[in-house]
TrEMBL record:
Cell compartment(s), UniProt: Cell membrane
Membrane topology: Multi-pass membrane protein
Keywords: Cell membrane, Membrane, Transmembrane, Transmembrane helix, Transport
Official protein name in the record: ABC transporter permease
Domain of life: Bacteria
Length: 490
């Protein structure tokens, strides 16, 4: 039987999500939402590849930003992982990875403009923090015995290469491959803030009602993700990394005076720029907290909690789609395709589409977050279930699910769900850029009003909120003795 502490924790989260639902806005405000959804489905069934004359450029830019950003992030993350025992390094990495790529992009846009450096750094900086943490965890899991038998005089670099790195290499490669998939999603989404990737052209096609072009772009993106392991071969990776910087494009030139002004004037709080002193700063902060930060925090937490529970529910419902204990060869393949589509579609992209179909409310955000993260967790739990060996007289159907498989995968499932908690909150905050009143909404509004000092404070609050949730999730995993390691990522 499932552990009582685990059951109580799960029921507590469900009860909290139900309570949050009473305060959420799930209204559909468009006149013919299902008709528009039908047109979109028709575009997916009958994509118009010939109408998308910019397809090649969009694809190359998306790949280029992903390879350069992830490559730079992985290299920096590996260096940081070697000194991750330092409290300063751990804190710095936690901070940079708590800020979403789109927030970084919005910051860099203010002084770099639409330059390739904006997109590259927006991916590389948070990914460096993520890589540092995960690489450090993978290296810590290696067997220390080989390092003890090295001959005297072995250099530190050679010792590291032939002991910890050699053991951890397969796990490092697998995780980096998974992060490249994430990088492709991040690169595509950068198009929504003006970078010339798939998201930019997708937003333009959607605004014009060109659903055939929308379908062509989405199908191309799914094929790109699904075939990643086929064309990203180790021997070809150096070629991709060398070619990618030349495919980023030139963009607009950087005006370095804007960079200087941003750091010396724009982000300095207005009361300090005007010489109003500490009292003026406190009044300014109080107004910011009451009118923007607190409403944004409330809506972010509200939406996160609802999306988290729905994500978990979907994952537990869908993992049998790829479990050998419930499916055959054909049905398992179809289930795998369905989960690939779900986890390959970025939350931001899916929320954008649903907002066009249903209108502005929390419903598109909740559905987008649940589908994407539910697909990821269902995929991982399904893989975990395939490792189970059932007794010969095990029941079938619903009884097999309820009494044999679900209880044995529920602990790892809950660990994965808590691991995704902070990620869901990061995405919840950034969805505010689409018009949902989370913290991202107020960040975007402040940037549009050229109040960069306000935007920076709100971004810092977002980062601290994410760090707080990450700490809470780790403590819950520890208290419930739920084990989840970096190597369990897809």
């Amino acid at each position: 039987m499932w552990q009582s502490a685990t059951v109580r924790t799960s029921l507590g989260f469900i009860a909290l999500a139900i309570a949050c639902a009473f305060f959420a806005d799930f209204q559909i405000s468009t006149q013919a939402p299902w008709q528009e959804l039908g047109r979109l489905m028709l575009g997916l069934v009958m994509p118009d590849f010939l109408a998308v004359d910019f397809l090649g450029e969009a694809l190359l830019r998306t790949l280029a930003f992903a390879f350069v950003g992830v490559g730079l992030g992985a290299f920096t993350g590996l260096l940081l992982a070697l000194v991750f025992h330092s409290a300063w390094v751990r804190t710095g990495c936690a901070f940079v990875r708590a800020i979403h790529e789109l927030f970084w992009a919005l910051i860099f846009l203010q002084f770099f403009g639409l330059h390739p450096l904006t997109g590259v750094l927006a991916i590389a900086i948070p990914y460096a923090g993520i890589f540092a943490k995960v690489y450090a965890e993978i290296l810590d899991e290696t067997d220390p015995q080989p390092a003890r038998v090295l001959p005297q005089g072995s250099g530190r670099v050679s010792g590291l290469a032939f002991t910890r790195l050699s053991q951890a290499w397969p796990h490092l490669v697998n995780y980096t491959s998974y992060r490249l998939e994430c990088g492709l999603r991040s690169s595509a989404v950068l198009g929504f803030v003006g970078m010339p990737t798939l998201g930019y052209y997708l937003e333009s096609a959607f605004a014009q009602g060109l659903y055939g072009s929308v379908g062509a772009l989405l199908i191309l993106f799914y094929v790109l993700i699904a075939t990643l392991k086929l064309w990203v071969r180790p021997r070809l990776l150096p070629f991709y990394l060398l070619a990618a910087p030349f495919l980023l494009g030139s963009g607009l030139p950087i005006v370095w005076s804007n960079v200087s002004r941003f750091f010396t004037q724009d982000i300095v709080p207005t009361p300090l720029r005007n010489g109003e002193g500490i009292s003026g700063l406190m009044t300014w902060l109080l107004d910011l907290m009451t009118t923007q930060a607190l409403p944004g925090i409330w809506n972010t937490l509200l939406l996160t909690q609802i999306a988290l529970v729905i994500t978990g529910t979907l994952a537990m419902m869908l993992f049998p789609l790829i479990s050998r204990h419930f499916t055959g060869r054909i049905s398992g393949t179809l289930g795998h395709v369905a989960l690939v589509v779900m986890r390959s579609t970025p939350e931001y992209l899916l929320a954008f589409i649903l907002l066009q179909l249903w209108g502005p409310s929390m419903l598109p955000a909740v559905v987008a977050l649940a589908l994407h993260n539910g697909g990821i967790i269902a995929h991982l739990v399904g893989q975990r279930s395939n490792q189970l060996t059932l007794r010969q007289d095990a029941p079938r159907g619903l009884d097999r699910y309820a009494y044999e498989v679900a209880p044995r995968v529920y602990g790892p499932f809950l660990a994965l769900l808590f691991y995704r908690w902070e990620i869901i909150m990061r995405e919840t905050a950034i969805l505010g850029i689409l018009g949902i009143a989370t913290l991202g909404f107020y960040v975007d509004s402040a940037i549009q009003e050229i109040r960069f000092d306000r935007a920076l404070v709100l971004i810092l609050i977002t980062a601290l909120l994410n760090i707080g949730v990450d700490i809470l999730a780790r403590r819950l995993r520890s208290r419930l003795r739920l084990r989840h390691t970096a190597t369990s990522e897809p």
